[in-house]
Amino acid sequence: AVRAWQAGAEALWRAGRAGPAARAYAQALRLAVLAGGVPPLDPARAGRKAELHAGLALCQLRLGLPAAAAANAGKALALRPGHLEARYRRGLAAAAMRDLEGAAADMAEILRAEPGHARARRELRRVRGAARQRDARLARRLGRLFA
Length: 147
Hints:
It comes from Rissa tridactyla (Black-legged kittiwake). The protein is elongated, with a radius of gyration of 18 Å. It starts with a helix and ends with a helix. The protein has helices at residues 2-14, 18-36, 43-62, 66-79, 84-96, 100-113, 118-145. The protein has a single domain (2-145), classed as Tetratricopeptide repeat domain (Serine Threonine Protein Phosphatase 5, Tetratricopeptide repeat, Alpha Horseshoe), CATH 1.25.40.10. It is an all-alpha fold and 147 residues long.
């Protein structure tokens, strides 16, 4: 049942239907929790659950829910720390919530694991640029305050 809901969620996502895909991922997660038993989960179940959390995070990013996306990406990483797409999605969510340092840390971690990850490299440049702009604005404001 979990695999069927996951396959349905993935099909809905490919069709561009983020809302229904998110609901399908959430249902698959509920079923995975019921079928999973008492933690700690065996590696196969933990991996599947991590994939479900990462998929739900992707949908939530598209739906403009960065806090929920960050939480689900974090859960995926707790289950499978090497999950690069979950880390990327958590970084995107952090950037959307203006946590530029957190976003940069996630992108840098991805690039340590996979130096050729082009999307992470682009996002890291964007986040660092946004942080520089933010810091420059703050310096100007503080300069006026103490001038």
